[in-house]
Amino acid sequence: MSLDLSSRKILVTGIANNRSIAWGIAQKLKAVGAELGITYLPDNKGRFEAKVRALTSVLEPTLFLPLDVQDGKQVELVFSKIKEKWGYLDGIIHCLAFAGKEELIGSYSDTTIEGFTRALDISTYSLASICHYAKPLLSNGSSIVTLTYLGAERAIPNYNLMGVAKAALESSVRYLAAELGPERQIRVNAISAGPIRTLASSAIGGILDMIHNVEEKSPLRRTVTQDEVGSATAFLMSPSASGITGQVIYVDAGYSITGM
Ligand code: 0WD
């Protein structure tokens, strides 16, 4: 049975450029019929907006909105615009994270409180705040997917603070799944992706070594692509995944099952 998300209204966050995992996801969702709302991280000069707008125009998003998740008013505004335009929502892709470069190298015990608060605010709390404003709009059987990494459960060199943020994110997935499931069958899951070269991952010390290690040791002897993460996400957004919630699904060429 092929996937069909015809006319499903899905919000995609976290597209920064054509390497972004969210870009792979958005393309896949569009290919199976979804109607997209896309957010971009605004900056003073509007450079991001122009870049993301040009990149995503082929996907014909019916909503294109600024969203800096550190600004609660902006989160609220995104969902009031969705209410105005669509009236409801069938899915959300939470595909964003941030930690200062200096927090992604060296020793975790050198993390500053400012760095910690900012990373957890953007990378973890944002999923809860998005769900808070989305809740009244989410349709029966809708689906929320966030992105995580193995560094949540293993001490991966240099991943440090982001590992702690992802551990809290994975826990948030379970609490949100328990909260949102009962009334309207709303599902919340995380995809734990293998390492992929993107703008965000280039900030992690030794990212290329991480990728080479996966290429050497994973059962599939390679890392994964944005396209593969996109396919798994489309599945989780679809009724075919109606029995799956609160889970962390690995799209990592099998690396997480190995002893290395
Ligand atoms: O190897 C990888 N690339 C993996 C990434 C492996 C496993 C998981 N992930 C996760 C990341 O942790 C993140 O949650 O996937 C998600 C997407 O990351 P990505 O595709 O690797 O990175 P990127 O293309 O940089 O997109 C992340 C985007 C930001 O980009 P930049 O590089 O400008 O920080 O997150 C967005 C922004 O577009 N973002 C924000 N969006 C709203 N409000 C904010 C914010 N405050 N900060 C960053």
TrEMBL record:
Supply the InterPro entries for this chain. Enoyl-ACP_Rdtase_NADH (IPR014358), NAD(P)-bd_dom_sf (IPR036291), SDR_fam (IPR002347)
Q: Which GO terms describe its molecular function?
A: enoyl-[acyl-carrier-protein] reductase (NADH) activity
Query: Pathway, according to UniProt?
Result: Lipid metabolism; fatty acid biosynthesis
Biological process (GO) annotations?
Answer: fatty acid biosynthetic process
- Keyword terms: Fatty acid biosynthesis, Fatty acid metabolism, Lipid biosynthesis, Lipid metabolism, Oxidoreductase, Plastid
Database matches in SUPFAM superfamilies: NAD(P)-binding Rossmann-fold domains (SSF51735)
Write down the superkingdom of origin: Eukaryota
Q: Please name the Pfam families in this protein's record.
A: adh_short_C2
Record family assignment? Belongs to the short-chain dehydrogenases/reductases (SDR) family. FabI subfamily.
Q: What name appears for this protein in its UniProt entry?
A: Enoyl-(Acyl-carrier-protein) reductase (NADH)
Taxonomic lineage: Eukaryota, Sar, Rhizaria, Cercozoa, Imbricatea
